[in-house]
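Researcher: We're teaching a course module on how sequence relates to structure. For the next exercise, students receive a sequence and then see the predicted structure as C-alpha coordinates, so they can try to spot secondary structure elements on their own. Here is the exercise chain.
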Amino acid sequence: MNDSPLRGRRVGVTAARKAQTQIDMFERRGAWVDWAPALSLAPSAVDADQLKETTLQILTQPVDLFLATTGIGITTWFDAADSWHLGDALTERIAAAEILARGPKSAAALRRRGIHEDWSPGSECFADVLDHLSSRDLSGSRIVLQEHGQSLAEAASYLRGRGAHVSVVTVYRIGDAEDSLPLRRLVGLVADREIDAVTFTSAPAIGAFMAVANDIGRRDALIEALRTGVLAACVGPVAADAFSLWNVPTLVPSRYRLAALVKLVETALATP
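Model: And here is the predicted structure for the students to work with:
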Protein backbone atom coordinates (compact mmCIF):
# COMPACT_ATOMS: atom_id res chain seq x y z
CA MET A 1 0.00 0.00 0.00
CA ASN A 2 2.49 2.63 -1.19
CA ASP A 3 -0.22 5.29 -1.29
CA SER A 4 -1.34 4.69 2.29
CA PRO A 5 -1.59 7.80 4.49
CA LEU A 6 0.39 5.81 7.06
CA ARG A 7 3.50 5.53 4.93
CA GLY A 8 6.23 7.32 6.84
CA ARG A 9 4.01 7.87 9.87
CA ARG A 10 5.00 6.74 13.36
CA VAL A 11 2.47 4.91 15.52
CA GLY A 12 2.76 3.78 19.12
CA VAL A 13 1.09 0.50 20.15
CA THR A 14 0.54 -0.15 23.86
CA ALA A 15 -1.28 -3.51 23.68
CA ALA A 16 0.33 -6.43 25.49
CA ARG A 17 -1.67 -9.37 24.16
CA LYS A 18 -2.42 -9.78 20.46
CA ALA A 19 -0.09 -6.87 19.81
CA GLN A 20 1.54 -8.49 16.79
CA THR A 21 -1.74 -8.55 14.85
CA GLN A 22 -2.11 -4.81 15.28
CA ILE A 23 1.56 -4.15 14.53
CA ASP A 24 1.35 -6.18 11.31
CA MET A 25 -1.69 -4.21 10.12
CA PHE A 26 0.06 -0.90 10.68
CA GLU A 27 3.31 -2.04 9.08
CA ARG A 28 1.50 -3.37 5.99
CA ARG A 29 0.22 0.16 5.55
CA GLY A 30 3.74 1.55 5.72
CA ALA A 31 3.76 2.84 9.28
CA TRP A 32 6.76 2.76 11.56
CA VAL A 33 5.57 1.09 14.79
CA ASP A 34 6.92 1.62 18.30
CA TRP A 35 5.63 -1.21 20.49
CA ALA A 36 5.59 -0.63 24.24
CA PRO A 37 3.29 -2.95 26.21
CA ALA A 38 1.64 -1.01 29.01
CA LEU A 39 0.58 -4.08 30.99
CA SER A 40 1.85 -7.49 31.98
CA LEU A 41 1.44 -10.44 29.65
CA ALA A 42 0.56 -12.62 32.65
CA PRO A 43 -3.12 -13.43 33.26
CA SER A 44 -4.95 -11.19 35.72
CA ALA A 45 -6.43 -12.54 38.93
CA VAL A 46 -8.58 -11.36 41.80
CA ASP A 47 -6.59 -10.68 44.97
CA ALA A 48 -9.12 -12.48 47.18
CA ASP A 49 -7.46 -11.67 50.50
CA GLN A 50 -7.27 -7.96 49.77
CA LEU A 51 -10.84 -7.89 48.43
CA LYS A 52 -12.17 -9.67 51.52
CA GLU A 53 -10.30 -7.33 53.85
CA THR A 54 -11.73 -4.29 52.05
CA THR A 55 -15.23 -5.78 52.13
CA LEU A 56 -15.07 -6.40 55.87
CA GLN A 57 -13.87 -2.85 56.44
CA ILE A 58 -16.78 -1.44 54.40
CA LEU A 59 -19.25 -3.48 56.44
CA THR A 60 -18.12 -1.87 59.70
CA GLN A 61 -19.86 1.47 59.06
CA PRO A 62 -22.58 3.07 56.92
CA VAL A 63 -21.79 4.13 53.34
CA ASP A 64 -23.09 7.49 52.13
CA LEU A 65 -22.20 7.20 48.46
CA PHE A 66 -21.34 4.21 46.26
CA LEU A 67 -19.73 4.76 42.85
CA ALA A 68 -20.13 1.73 40.57
CA THR A 69 -17.96 1.62 37.46
CA THR A 70 -18.22 -1.80 35.75
CA GLY A 71 -20.76 -4.59 35.57
CA ILE A 72 -18.20 -7.40 35.70
CA GLY A 73 -16.52 -5.76 38.66
CA ILE A 74 -19.78 -5.56 40.60
CA THR A 75 -20.67 -9.17 39.75
CA THR A 76 -17.21 -10.49 40.70
CA TRP A 77 -17.21 -8.60 43.99
CA PHE A 78 -20.66 -9.70 45.11
CA ASP A 79 -20.04 -13.31 44.02
CA ALA A 80 -16.87 -13.30 46.10
CA ALA A 81 -18.81 -11.86 49.04
CA ASP A 82 -21.32 -14.70 48.70
CA SER A 83 -18.48 -17.21 48.96
CA TRP A 84 -17.45 -15.60 52.27
CA HIS A 85 -21.10 -15.58 53.48
CA LEU A 86 -21.04 -11.79 53.34
CA GLY A 87 -23.23 -11.27 50.27
CA ASP A 88 -26.43 -10.35 52.13
CA ALA A 89 -24.63 -7.95 54.44
CA LEU A 90 -22.86 -6.29 51.51
CA THR A 91 -26.11 -5.96 49.57
CA GLU A 92 -27.80 -4.33 52.56
CA ARG A 93 -24.90 -1.93 53.12
CA ILE A 94 -24.67 -0.80 49.48
CA ALA A 95 -28.45 -0.59 49.00
CA ALA A 96 -28.68 1.88 51.89
CA ALA A 97 -26.25 4.28 50.17
CA GLU A 98 -26.83 6.80 47.40
CA ILE A 99 -25.67 5.02 44.25
CA LEU A 100 -24.12 6.53 41.13
CA ALA A 101 -23.52 4.01 38.33
CA ARG A 102 -21.17 4.89 35.49
CA GLY A 103 -23.22 3.07 32.87
CA PRO A 104 -25.96 0.53 32.15
CA LYS A 105 -23.78 -2.55 32.74
CA SER A 106 -22.88 -1.59 36.28
CA ALA A 107 -26.49 -0.56 36.93
CA ALA A 108 -27.76 -3.89 35.59
CA ALA A 109 -25.34 -5.84 37.79
CA LEU A 110 -26.60 -3.97 40.83
CA ARG A 111 -30.24 -4.55 39.90
CA ARG A 112 -29.61 -8.27 39.74
CA ARG A 113 -28.85 -7.91 43.43
CA GLY A 114 -32.03 -5.93 44.03
CA ILE A 115 -30.10 -2.67 44.28
CA HIS A 116 -31.20 0.33 42.19
CA GLU A 117 -29.01 3.23 41.18
CA ASP A 118 -30.02 6.82 42.00
CA TRP A 119 -28.27 8.42 39.03
CA SER A 120 -26.24 7.47 35.96
CA PRO A 121 -24.75 9.70 33.22
CA GLY A 122 -26.00 9.22 29.67
CA SER A 123 -22.40 9.45 28.46
CA GLU A 124 -21.20 6.37 30.41
CA CYS A 125 -18.11 8.44 31.29
CA PHE A 126 -16.75 8.26 34.82
CA ALA A 127 -15.54 11.85 34.52
CA ASP A 128 -19.21 12.87 34.30
CA VAL A 129 -19.88 11.02 37.55
CA LEU A 130 -17.23 13.16 39.21
CA ASP A 131 -18.64 16.26 37.53
CA HIS A 132 -22.07 15.37 38.93
CA LEU A 133 -20.52 15.58 42.39
CA SER A 134 -18.51 18.75 41.72
CA SER A 135 -20.99 21.17 43.34
CA ARG A 136 -21.81 19.02 46.36
CA ASP A 137 -20.37 19.28 49.84
CA LEU A 138 -18.62 15.94 50.37
CA SER A 139 -17.02 16.83 53.70
CA GLY A 140 -17.23 13.84 56.00
CA SER A 141 -19.03 11.67 53.43
CA ARG A 142 -18.11 8.01 53.34
CA ILE A 143 -17.65 6.98 49.72
CA VAL A 144 -17.00 3.53 48.31
CA LEU A 145 -15.39 3.55 44.86
CA GLN A 146 -15.38 0.30 42.88
CA GLU A 147 -12.56 -0.14 40.39
CA HIS A 148 -11.96 -3.01 38.01
CA GLY A 149 -8.68 -3.29 36.16
CA GLN A 150 -8.08 0.45 35.80
CA SER A 151 -6.69 2.32 38.79
CA LEU A 152 -8.93 5.15 39.95
CA ALA A 153 -6.36 6.48 42.41
CA GLU A 154 -6.59 9.99 40.97
CA ALA A 155 -10.37 10.03 41.32
CA ALA A 156 -10.05 8.82 44.91
CA SER A 157 -7.48 11.52 45.61
CA TYR A 158 -9.81 14.16 44.14
CA LEU A 159 -12.70 13.01 46.35
CA ARG A 160 -10.48 12.93 49.44
CA GLY A 161 -9.39 16.46 48.57
CA ARG A 162 -13.06 17.41 48.79
CA GLY A 163 -13.16 16.12 52.35
CA ALA A 164 -14.61 12.65 51.76
CA HIS A 165 -13.49 9.40 53.35
CA VAL A 166 -12.92 7.08 50.38
CA SER A 167 -12.63 3.29 50.34
CA VAL A 168 -11.43 1.87 47.02
CA VAL A 169 -12.61 -1.64 46.16
CA THR A 170 -10.01 -3.18 43.85
CA VAL A 171 -11.72 -6.18 42.27
CA TYR A 172 -8.64 -6.95 40.25
CA ARG A 173 -5.63 -5.05 39.01
CA ILE A 174 -3.70 -5.99 35.90
CA GLY A 175 0.01 -5.93 36.59
CA ASP A 176 2.45 -3.49 35.04
CA ALA A 177 4.62 -4.54 32.13
CA GLU A 178 7.56 -6.74 33.08
CA ASP A 179 9.93 -4.24 31.42
CA SER A 180 8.95 -0.57 31.84
CA LEU A 181 11.69 0.87 29.62
CA PRO A 182 9.78 0.61 26.29
CA LEU A 183 6.73 2.36 27.79
CA ARG A 184 8.89 5.08 29.33
CA ARG A 185 10.48 5.61 25.94
CA LEU A 186 7.08 5.77 24.20
CA VAL A 187 5.76 8.27 26.73
CA GLY A 188 8.77 10.47 25.97
CA LEU A 189 8.21 10.19 22.22
CA VAL A 190 4.56 11.20 22.59
CA ALA A 191 5.39 14.08 24.93
CA ASP A 192 8.00 15.30 22.43
CA ARG A 193 5.46 14.90 19.57
CA GLU A 194 7.65 12.46 17.69
CA ILE A 195 4.70 10.06 17.36
CA ASP A 196 1.71 10.70 15.08
CA ALA A 197 -0.75 8.42 16.91
CA VAL A 198 -0.83 6.00 19.81
CA THR A 199 -3.35 3.17 20.27
CA PHE A 200 -4.94 1.63 23.37
CA THR A 201 -7.03 -1.52 23.73
CA SER A 202 -8.00 -1.23 27.41
CA ALA A 203 -8.62 1.30 30.15
CA PRO A 204 -5.93 -0.22 32.44
CA ALA A 205 -3.36 0.34 29.69
CA ILE A 206 -4.22 4.03 29.70
CA GLY A 207 -3.90 4.13 33.47
CA ALA A 208 -0.46 2.54 33.27
CA PHE A 209 0.55 4.89 30.45
CA MET A 210 -0.40 7.96 32.50
CA ALA A 211 1.21 6.57 35.65
CA VAL A 212 4.54 6.18 33.83
CA ALA A 213 4.21 9.73 32.47
CA ASN A 214 3.76 10.95 36.03
CA ASP A 215 6.68 8.86 37.32
CA ILE A 216 9.11 10.34 34.80
CA GLY A 217 7.83 13.90 35.14
CA ARG A 218 6.31 14.14 31.66
CA ARG A 219 2.58 14.02 32.44
CA ASP A 220 1.78 17.66 31.65
CA ALA A 221 3.74 17.58 28.39
CA LEU A 222 2.12 14.26 27.47
CA ILE A 223 -1.41 15.54 28.10
CA GLU A 224 -0.77 18.68 26.08
CA ALA A 225 0.63 16.64 23.18
CA LEU A 226 -2.40 14.33 23.20
CA ARG A 227 -4.75 17.32 23.27
CA THR A 228 -3.11 19.26 20.48
CA GLY A 229 -1.36 17.01 18.01
CA VAL A 230 -0.81 13.35 18.78
CA LEU A 231 -3.86 11.19 18.11
CA ALA A 232 -5.05 8.89 20.91
CA ALA A 233 -7.04 6.03 19.39
CA CYS A 234 -8.97 3.57 21.58
CA VAL A 235 -10.57 0.31 20.46
CA GLY A 236 -13.79 1.03 22.38
CA PRO A 237 -15.61 3.53 24.60
CA VAL A 238 -14.64 1.89 27.90
CA ALA A 239 -10.97 2.46 27.14
CA ALA A 240 -11.67 5.97 25.84
CA ASP A 241 -13.47 6.88 29.06
CA ALA A 242 -10.21 6.39 30.96
CA PHE A 243 -8.80 9.44 29.17
CA SER A 244 -11.74 11.61 30.22
CA LEU A 245 -10.10 12.14 33.61
CA TRP A 246 -7.48 14.22 31.79
CA ASN A 247 -9.79 15.73 29.13
CA VAL A 248 -7.85 14.02 26.36
CA PRO A 249 -9.81 13.68 23.09
CA THR A 250 -9.91 10.19 21.63
CA LEU A 251 -10.78 8.40 18.42
CA VAL A 252 -13.06 5.36 18.76
CA PRO A 253 -14.14 3.19 15.79
CA SER A 254 -17.83 2.41 15.32
CA ARG A 255 -16.93 -1.30 15.38
CA TYR A 256 -14.81 -2.20 18.39
CA ARG A 257 -12.28 -4.29 16.48
CA LEU A 258 -8.54 -3.96 15.83
CA ALA A 259 -8.99 -3.71 12.06
CA ALA A 260 -11.47 -0.87 12.51
CA LEU A 261 -9.08 0.85 14.93
CA VAL A 262 -6.20 0.69 12.45
CA LYS A 263 -8.43 1.94 9.62
CA LEU A 264 -9.64 4.83 11.77
CA VAL A 265 -6.08 5.92 12.51
CA GLU A 266 -5.26 5.66 8.81
CA THR A 267 -8.24 7.82 7.88
CA ALA A 268 -7.58 10.38 10.61
CA LEU A 269 -3.95 10.83 9.58
CA ALA A 270 -5.03 11.30 5.97
CA THR A 271 -7.10 14.34 6.96
CA PRO A 272 -5.15 17.59 6.53
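Model: If you want an answer key for the exercise: The chain has a mean pLDDT of 92. The first helix runs from residue 19 to 28.
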